[in-house]
Design brief:
Elements: H1 15-34, H2 47-66, H3 72-80, H4 86-92
Helix pairs in contact: 1-2
Keywords: Nucleus
Protein name: Protein BUD31 homolog
Subcellular location: Nucleus
Length: 144
């Protein structure tokens, strides 16, 4: 099984606890990248990759901030090695962005009218029974 991408720098103590989960997510990422995309829109073929990227970052975030199961050195190592997305985690720490699915959903330059993505609109503000799906990552509502 291929290893999680790392530099020559030795990982800090506690790496062996999170490595199996990260390897499993890395394997899922490879499968998602090689999955055939015939019959799908261009953006739709990227949705599984965004989802797995979110899972990896959320896993590291939860271990450090919620469960306090990993050390600061290991957390920083994961950010430095780009195992987790530092910018996405920084947004999760801010009020109102705790459930953010991806950074593209809050970038106003990616939309026609310089607004946020439709998945950022609270479900209470949407029509009853309307199913919303993000164009960028396939999220069905990350505003809470």
């Amino acid at each position: 099984m291929p290893k999680v991408r790392r530099s020559r720098k030795a990982p800090p103590e506690g790496w062996e606890l999170i490595e199996p989960t990260l390897e499993e997510l890395e394997q899922k990422m490879r499968e998602a990248e090689t999955e055939p995309h015939e019959g799908k829109r261009k953006q739709e073929s990227l949705w599984p990759i965004f989802k797995i990227h979110h899972q990896k970052s959320r896993y590291i975030y939860d271990l450090f901030y919620r469960r306090k199961a990993i050390s600061r050195e290991l957390y920083q190592y994961c950010l430095d090695e780009k195992i987790a997305d530092a910018n996405l985690i920084a947004k999760w720490k801010k009020t109102g962005y705790e459930n953010l699915c991806c950074l593209r959903c809050i970038q106003t330059r990616d939309t026609n009218f310089a607004t946020n993505c439709i998945c950022r609109v609270p479900k209470s503000k949407l029509e009853e029974g309307r199913i919303v799906e993000c164009v960028h990552c396939g999220c069905r509502g990350c505003s809470g």
